[in-house]
Specification:
A: 384 residues, alpha/beta, 8-stranded mixed beta sheet, B: 514 residues, 9-stranded mixed beta sheet, 6-stranded parallel beta sheet, 15 helices, 20% strand
Chain lengths: 384, 514
């Protein structure tokens, strides 16, 4: 939003460790019109669509800004556990805040309420019990875990199982191999808990555009005759395989029923896999590569190339970030003739945009789950 | 072998339902204002959102001699002025502009349509438009029939059973009265099937009008009280602060009743009054809207002056600026009796609405731009409070604000805090814009996309147009029976003529201040 007038009130909540009544009383006090810079007689109704529980570790300010912006699209009660690794033992004094941001022309203001509880990693086993009483009744509870996920900690699994939706980001994990951990976590969660990976949201536009390449009549045959498939991303630290490349390749493998037969790191920046087509009649060569790029694109998809041949027919199709990299150019040429030349504007995704998409209620994402299974098998092939 | 988009295995889990098939959009009147201000910016926004299909191309068609390069330069300028989002990437511009083409041509010259056909075939061949075509008539209505006829004669209109499709988008006004609307419809139907005709009323593309449907039919608690038992009356207001701008020539022939009531206000009326549709398929929704319009009680000629009020703005002040009166506007007759304000009282004769008045009003040069629907409920049957306690009480009103500040307010009675029992009315407000702070798409974005997708839910069907013209034509006839030398005047910057206040006051009611 442009320049905003803003009203914000924060107050420490006196009393013992999470005094729920004190928290609610303080929130009610802060919601009173005199504390908000809105017209007293036309105070906006509190629109709430969900409880957003966030567990942060050191990036509190970034998360605070994101959740504030998110609340404008998904008005929420935000319950933020600020985990300080340097502390152990008891939780600190919780605080509550209500903030209203007002655009220059808006007579009224959106308001969000936030409960912040300083805590420490040692308190992880108690988090489930702390979250439950703070949730607004009958509203879905979403847990967003923005940083590295403690996959091996049973307390984490317990917290995840207590909410309706868990949002994590495989991009934030140390390496692509941890996508196998995401798949394992998925297997342990109850069926009512949805699992969302923000990285999967990031590659969604690329999936859409790749699908569009084959919506064109001229190139539809090529899907069943792919011979080479290459994915390029920006690099990630330590020369590891970027998570997005693995996810994207696994998605293609699922959609086209490819079976990975071998995988190896061929060069410091190149991973080569081979796959069999569904009928085992055709071998597909898959290359995953990194190339230098502005750091904002590190780990992000930069291009996808597909080549196919069927007798005399050939096709070359691709998506490439171009210009200042905020545009994806689509091209398809079939037997030497241009079948498609198109471009879409697609700057790097901001976290709040991805999170906003992830918070839309959706059906179980069968494709994501199947992609995780394919990724797990690909990781196993690398390990062999 | 994959034979259709739906069979593309990469599409599983992706939002196929909102992706149109490749097509070419031909805009007739491509050098005009509507194209620059609305259509091209809307298409740009759709492109930036990634909602246009690969293979989407635009062909501008107009009389002005111009090359495709000139057209692209003009498009770029209008996008930079009017688009909601401005593309900044040169790579995007390059590709977007390459998909724009221009064919200079006369609307009545068959040779020019042959050249248009050749260009469309070239685009099918070279740019993958797949033979699908949208023809957008952004021209004065006088050209509608001619263009439709020429398209048909040049064999550019696909048979309805052809896999490749042709669609025709027609802008309002659809006629000047019921006979002319019928005639226009019949003429267009000589060349296009009804399923191929998309009549645009951009009000229906507004997110907030669709929200009215969501509000009514997505909530179980309102429908049981949405009837004559609980509702006292309904007020629909569409007020504009602007005057007639550069449209004096058109407006002086049309007036507020034709320009606003027949389309925009009746659209609002029908979404408020319609019965719940059995589904949200185009015909299910439109069937119910048409039924509501058909149930409008005919206004007898001798009652027209009792049930309507006309007005014309004089000089005044709007938003702190002095403005001239209607008769001083460019291209307006100095003795014009064209109405710039109209108020109506209508009844819907069906089980749900019997006896409930619907007050509609629209005007130019009002104090502010606002569109809203206000449902005023009946008072509580018995108030067990003292007169002093209820002095500040007002009836419950549910106001659905269409623009600006889209949202819903419900006026309820609450106790004033304190030792004494005193009641007052308070507004509970829910604003979409401040509860969901996302920019809504422009109405044209939604409507252009829907047309490409073949979804006509938000377009006006033939019978709907004619059902709306019926009562309007009666009013026009009634007015013509008793011509006036001068209409009641209102100062620019006020809420209309005094007669309009008296009009509702006769029923013991008053206009809301929106």
């Amino acid at each position: 939003m442009d320049s905003m007038a803003s009203g914000s009130q924060t107050g420490p909540v006196p009393g013992a460790f999470i005094d729920l009544e004190a928290l609610e009383a303080e929130l009610a006090r802060l919601w009173r019109p005199e504390h908000l810079s809105t017209d007293a007689m036309s105070m906006p109704a509190r629109a709430v669509v969900l409880n957003l529980v966030v567990v942060t570790a050191g990036d509190t300010e970034r998360v605070r800004q994101i959740t504030e912006r998110i609340s404008m699209l998904h008005p929420s009660r935000v319950i933020c556990f600020d985990m300080d690794p340097s502390k152990d033992g008891e939780a600190g004094v919780p605080s509550v805040s209500v903030s209203c941001d007002r655009g220059p022309h808006d007579p009224q203001a959106p308001c969000i309420e936030r409960i912040t509880i300083p805590t420490s990693p040692a308190m992880l086993p108690q988090l489930t019990a702390m979250i439950q009483p703070l949730l607004l009744p009958e509203m879905p509870a979403v847990l967003w875990w923005p940083g590295p996920v403690p996959f091996d900690d049973p307390s984490f699994t317990k917290i995840a199982a207590s909410v309706d939706c868990l949002i994590l980001d495989s991009q934030e994990q140390a390496h692509a191999g941890q996508i196998a951990d995401v798949a394992r976590l998925r297997d342990t969660l109850p069926s009512r808990t949805a699992l969302i990976d923000l990285n999967w949201e990031r590659i969604k536009p690329w999936r859409e555009l790749t699908a569009q390449l084959f919506d064109i009549q001229h190139s539809q045959w090529a899907l069943e005759h792919v011979q080479e498939f290459e994915v390029e991303t920006g690099p990630i630290p330590n020369g590891r395989l970027p998570q997005q490349a693995l996810l994207f390749m696994s998605w293609m493998a699922f959609c086209l029923s490819w079976e990975i037969t071998s995988a190896r790191k061929a060069r410091p920046d190149t991973w080569v896999l081979t796959a069999d087509s569904a009928d085992a009649e055709r071998a597909i060569l898959v290359r995953l590569r990194t190339r230098p790029c502005p750091s904002i694109y590190n780990g992000q998809l930069l291009s996808v190339s597909i080549s196919a041949r069927d007798g005399a027919r050939s096709a070359s199709l691709g998506l490439t970030r171009t210009g200042r990299l905020a545009t994806i150019r689509m091209r398809a040429s079939v037997s030497g003739e241009t079948a498609l030349h198109h471009a879409v504007h697609h700057p790097p995704d901001e976290d709040e945009v991805l999170l906003a998409q992830a918070l839309q209620p959706t059906e179980l994402d069968r494709v994501f789950h199947a992609t995780l299974d394919h990724a797990r098998r690909a990781i196993a092939s690398f390990e062999r | 072998m994959i034979s259709s988009i739906a069979e593309n295995p990469l599409r599983e889990g992706l939002s196929l339902e909102r992706l149109p098939e490749p097509c070419a959009m031909v805009i007739f009147g491509a050098s005009g204002d509507l194209t620059s201000r609305k259509l091209l910016p809307a298409l740009t926004d759709l492109a930036l959102e990634g909602l246009l299909p690969p293979g989407f191309n635009v062909v501008g068609y107009a009389r002005r001699p111009m090359t495709s390069e000139d057209f692209r330069a003009q498009v770029r300028e209008s996008i930079e002025r009017f688009a909601r989002r401005k593309p900044s990437e040169p790579a995007f511009w390059d590709t977007f502009l390459q998909n724009l083409h221009y064919v200079p041509g006369n609307f009545s010259d068959p040779d020019d349509y042959q050249r248009l056909g050749a260009e469309l075939e070239r685009l099918d061949r070279e740019r993958g438009t797949h033979g699908n075509r949208v023809f957008y008539l952004a021209t004065p209505p006088i050209h509608y029939e001619e263009i439709a006829c020429q398209l048909s004669q040049a064999e550019l209109v696909r048979d309805i059973h052809d896999e490749r499709w042709s669609r025709l988008i027609v802008e309002k006004p659809f006629g000047r009265d019921l006979p002319s609307a019928r005639e226009l419809n019949e003429r267009l139907l000589n060349y296009f099937e009804e399923e191929q005709i998309y009549r645009i009323d951009h009000y229906l593309g507004k997110e907030t009008v669709q929200n009215v449907l969501a509000f009514r039919f997505g909530n179980g608690i309102f429908e049981p009280i949405w009837n004559r038992t609980y509702i006292d009356h309904v007020q629909i207001t569409v007020a504009e602060s602007i005057g007639i701008e550069n449209r004096g020539g058109y407006y002086d022939q049309a007036g507020a009743l034709r320009d606003m009531v027949q389309n925009h206000l009746f659209q609002l009326l029908s979404v408020i009054a319609m019965e719940p549709p059995i589904s949200f398929l185009a015909d299910a929704v439109r069937d119910e809207k048409v039924k509501a319009l058909h149930a409008l009680r005919p206004i007898p000629m001798d009652k027209v002056h009792e049930l309507t009020v006309r007005g014309q703005y004089g000089p005044g002040w709007v938003m702190g600026q002095p403005v001239s009166g209607y008769r001083e506007e460019p291209r307006v007759e100095p003795s014009s009796v064209t109405e710039t304000y109209v108020a109506l009282k209508l009844f819907i004769d069906n089980w749900r609405w019997a006896g409930v008045p619907f007050y509609l009003r629209t005007g130019k040069r009002m104090p502010r731009r606002v569109s809203e629907i206000a449902i005023q409920f009946k008072e509580a049957p018995h108030l067990p409070f003292t007169a002093a306690a209820t002095r500040s009480m007002e009836p419950n009103v549910l106001a659905l604000r269409i623009q600006p500040d889209e949202g819903i307010t419900l006026k309820i009675t609450a106790k004033v805090p304190g030792p004494r029992l005193r009641l007052r009315s308070v507004n509970m407000g829910f604003l979409y814009g401040t509860s969901f702070l996302v920019e809504s798409p422009d109405a044209y974005e939604r409507l252009l996309l829907d047309c490409m997708l073949g979804d006509s839910t938000l377009f006006t069907r033939r019978d709907e147009t004619e059902a709306a013209w019926g009562p309007i034509t009666r009013i026009l006839e009634g007015w013509s029976e008793l011509p006036v030398q001068a209409l009641p005047s209102y100062d620019a910057g006020t809420w209309g003529p005094r007669e309009a206040d008296e009009f509702v006051a006769r029923d013991g009611r008053h206009w809301r201040r929106p």
